[in-house]
Amino acid sequence: MLSKFKSKIRGKTIKRLLSTSCAISFLLYGYDAGVLGGVQETEPFLHAMGGIGIGFISCSIPTYQAEMSTKHEERGPDVAVTCVFLVAGAAVAYWIDFGFTRMDNQISWRIPIAFQVVFALCAGSIMLFLPDTPRWYYAKGYEAEGDKTLCQIFDAEIHDERVQNMKSSILTNIAFESQNKKGFNLLDLIWDRSDLRVGRRIRISFLILAIQQMMGINLSVYYSTVIFAQVGLSPFTAQLLAAIMNTAFALGTVPLVWTVEKFGRRSILLWSAVVLTGCMVLFVTMIGLPNRTLATQWTAVGAIFVYNMVFGYGWIGICWLYGPEIAPLKLRHAGAAAGAFGEWLFSFVTVFAGGIALQNVGWKIWIWMALSCFVAIFFVYFMCPETTGKTLEEIDVLFAKEEIKHTILAEQLVMQSNARTEKGEMSSTHIENS
């Protein structure tokens, strides 16, 4: 019954369900991080279980969306939308935490945690009706299932030119990766000798999200109340501003949906890193002054607000998009996992060490964040080529060694020519039978 219903989901319907499920999953991700970061009375096993679940979500969702895209211009906005929900989930969690901190009983932490079940049930129920990605099916040798999924996504028959072009492009890359004599091994993460620069691509997936955390966003989110208290504001004002700032952070992610394909991944990452460095330097300067005034207090507040909004625009959605996008097909899961590992490892480092540092060295910890923002500029400039406007298969060519690029392009042309020939034969047979 379920399989019959799944086969009837095609075209825009499958894309809407996919986007809805991914968005709700990332909303759960953000909400979970916000609740478990703000509610302090939960048992350790709840944090552990939440961490495992969020780890699965953060690895799989960007990869699934990237591989289910039929047009290169869809990938950026799709992931950007889910990241709007990611940060919105954290903002919702902080407002709920803000309301429940007025209670002094077990309800204050039980309801915020139990509320996550609603998001999980919605996302999980929708995923029951969605297929796996055609790239995964082809990579595992399930050609019939891959054909069926491509037909569902395009809402077309198997001999449709769009279906055949994408199928031939995917199969070409799979064949080339399988025949590649200089395949990937773990040593390539240190010194990359592979023809497709796989080690470099996985390193970038890890580093871009590790640097994202080193720039201080989670520290500013988790300890926003402490930060505003250190600026010199009252406890209530600090709590209120913390909730407002996280809402502003969520609003900052919205413009990316319409601009990620227009301005490009690299440009947005680069110029937002420049602005973030300026904001962090201004913030450090204002809170480091020996004699703070009302003007310096609110200048610091303004700087950290702008920092959060710009970070939401430039360094949330694109970081989650870029890693799975640049990873080769057979190791896309490894690229996504490396990114999630970098995200959560350095999230732990910055939040754990940052909390201790805020108590011991105070405002000086933000110098570390300012330097990380500065380093991010050079990382993007030297390590992150532009991927906007390219299919996932074209990105393979972008990273390949020069002597290999021509081979890949030639094989893609041959496969596309064969696909057109097969289509012509199928059309002729159909006419004759008619």
TrEMBL record:
Cellular compartments annotated: Membrane
GO cellular component term of the entry, any: membrane
PROSITE patterns listed in its UniProt record: MFS, SUGAR_TRANSPORT_1
SUPFAM superfamilies for the chain: MFS general substrate transporter
TM stretches of this protein: 47-66, 78-96, 108-130, 204-224, 236-257, 269-289, 301-322, 334-359, 365-384
Keywords from the UniProt entry: Membrane, Transmembrane, Transmembrane helix, Transport
GO MF, one example: carbohydrate:proton symporter activity
Main location (coarse class): membrane
Annotated Pfam families: Sugar_tr (PF00083)
Membrane topology: Multi-pass membrane protein
Domain Major facilitator superfamily (MFS) profile, chain residue ranges per copy: 1-388
InterPro entries: MFS_dom, MFS_sugar_transport-like, MFS_Sugar_Transporters, MFS_trans_sf, Sugar/inositol_transpt, Sugar_transporter_CS
Coiled coil: none
Family: Belongs to the major facilitator superfamily. Sugar transporter (TC 2.A.1.1) family.
Name of this protein: Major facilitator superfamily (MFS) profile domain-containing protein
Source organism of the structure: Fusarium sarcochroum
Native organism taxonomy: Eukaryota, Fungi, Dikarya, Ascomycota, Pezizomycotina
